[in-house]
Structure formats: structure tokens, C-alpha cells
Amino acid sequence: MSVDEVWVPFIEDPDDEDARRIRSGQVEAANGLRALIERRGNGHRMSASVELAQAFAVNSQGNAAATDRLLGRNFSGFAAPHRVRYLPSKNETENTIAVDRVGLVAHILGPPRDARFLKRMDPPSKQSWPLVRAAASTATDGGPTPLFNRRYIARNPLPDRLLQAKAALGLDELVDDDDRLLRAASILENAVNNTSVFFVLDIAGTRLLFPGNAQQGAWEHVLSDPRTIDLVSRLAFYKVGHHGSHNATPRHFVETDWQTDGYAMIPFGLVKRWAKTIPKKSLVDSLVSHDHIVIRADEAPDAVPGKIAVNGDLWTEVTLTA
């Protein structure tokens, strides 16, 4: 396999201070959440909500083996060494990447580095997250959650204020609430999704948008700058974010910012639990009503000579012209 470059989010850069902070927070939160979920199971059959929460937590811990392959570590499948870019770069001039031999220019728009948006990518510090982090070092014997690890034994009774603070965390309540565990896991996965590389490809004036799984924080970053709004306003193609979920394509983008006709591709696999919400019907309807041709992975579109070619449920080919 011959690859010139591999682009990954800056969060994977081991030498990036921002990346280390965000990544360590995500791993800490994911580990704490998994500890709570395992305690909730406690040898018993987990409910569907808890099983899903566990899947989210595992997904949020990253995939070291896949990252090693992408970065060329411990993997001989690439035909030759390749360049790795951690994007976006702190040097803004390096976020416009030209590939002259194919007439392509890539504009890297995210994930955001601006502190106003970076904080929205951290594991959330409100709602359930303080509880998840506090639970990482607690005992799991099924009894009341101790304030400290059992190997630390206090000679004197703990002050009332500390006992009250522990009670206020509500760890036992969280463990016993399947839906709260699921919500916590979902919030964590959203934070990880927001670190997707978000970019526009411009090929001789034909623009294609790929936001990955970016959600609210990353989109707000892009739509807060007139220059980047202009880049996403005249698109021929949009790879719909996060399988067409409710929080990965802003309504304002569809109804106002995207000003040209174009194709919207929704790649997803049907999951029974989300069959009624992914892809979001109101999103699909809005794309259609704004004169965009929607191509779904589960529904083959009609073939259009010179524009759309279809091979059953295997693939759909779209021909874009300048």
C-alpha cells in the first residue's frame, strides 16, 4: 500500500501539550466510567443501556493498535515511509495543504485549538463527569463507596464536611441508574468525536466537506469565522457528520450557510436501538428541501447518466464537474 501522508488529529501528537492534557482527561474519564459500569454489572446480566454505555466507554479509550498502524509504528504494510501530519498545526500557514500534481488544496478547519472551543472537547467537568473521575479509585465490593482507598486508614473519624462532600457526589446513585451511566458514556463519546479532523478539499474550485464525527464545539468554531464560513458555503459534496446524528450537522449550516446545490452522503450502518433517530429524519428532510441530493448507505439512489452510477448496495459513484 503506497501512502504519501497520513493526517490525524493533533490530539494524537505525543509532543503537543494541549493534546496530552485532553487525551489524559479522556482516558481518566473512560477508565472511571468503565469501573462504574463493571461495578453495576457485578457478575449479573447487564441491561441494554449499561451494555451500550460499556461500548461507548471502550470506544472512548482509543485504539492504540490502529493508531500505531496509521503512524507507521510496528507495521510493515506501507510500501514506503510516509509523512504524518498532526492537524491542525499551530502554524496556521501549514493548515492549507496544496497537492499540486492533482490540483487539490486541503483547508484544515478543525479540531479547534482556540481555548474557547477546546474546553468543549475536554471530558465534561459538570453533570456526571466529576462523579466518573472520583469513582476511578473507589472500592467495588458492593457496599458504600469509601472516600479513600482502603489502604489509607484514618486514625481519627473523618470531619463531617468530608463525609458530606462524599455523599454529595452521589456515586452510589449513579451506579444504580442505568440511564445516567448511558448519558455519561454518551457525553464522553461526544467529546472524543469532537477531535475529528475537519477539512474542506478544493479541487479546481469544486469543494468537498469532510467533518468526520465533529459535533457542536467543532462546528461552532468553524461557523464563528467569516473565512471558514465562506469555505463551507459553496459545496458540491458534504460527507454528513457522524452518520446523520442530531448534533453533528448544525441546522443553521443546512438552512443558511450551505448556499449551493450539492450532494450529501450519509454513511452509516443500521443499529436497531437508533433506527428511528439515525439518520435524523428532520435533517434528511431539510437537506432534500434545500435542493441537495441525499445519498444514504442503506438506500441506493436512482442512477443518473453522467452523474450518479449505482452498483446495488455495494457503492454509489458521483461525478462532480467544475
Word description of this protein:
By secondary structure, the protein is an alpha/beta fold. The chain is built from twelve helices and eleven strands. It has helices spanning 17-41, 48-60, 64-70, 115-118, 129-134, 160-169, 171-175, 178-193, 216-222, 226-233, 251-257, 281-289; strands at 5-9, 83-87, 96-99, 104-110, 198-203, 206-210, 237-239, 262-266, 292-296, 308-311, 315-318. A seven-stranded mixed β-sheet has the order 3-4-5-6-7-8-9. Helix 1 (17-41) packs antiparallel against helix 8 (178-193). The protein is globular, with a radius of gyration of 23 Å.
- Largest sheet entry: 7 strands, mixed
Distance linking N and C termini: 30 Å
Number of strands: 11
Order of helices and strands: EHHHEEEHHHHHEEHHEHEHEEE
- Poorly predicted runs of 5 or more residues: 121-142
Give the helix proportion (percent range).
25-40%
Structural class: alpha/beta
Specify the overall morphology.
globular
Trace the largest sheet across and list its strands.
Answer: 3-4-5-6-7-8-9
Mean of all residue-level pLDDT scores? 76
Rg to the nearest angstrom? 23 Å
Strand content: 15-25%
Number of helices: 12
Q: What distinguishing features does this structure have?
A:
two-stranded parallel sheet; alpha/beta; globular; single chain; 7-stranded mixed β-sheet; 322 residues; 12 helices
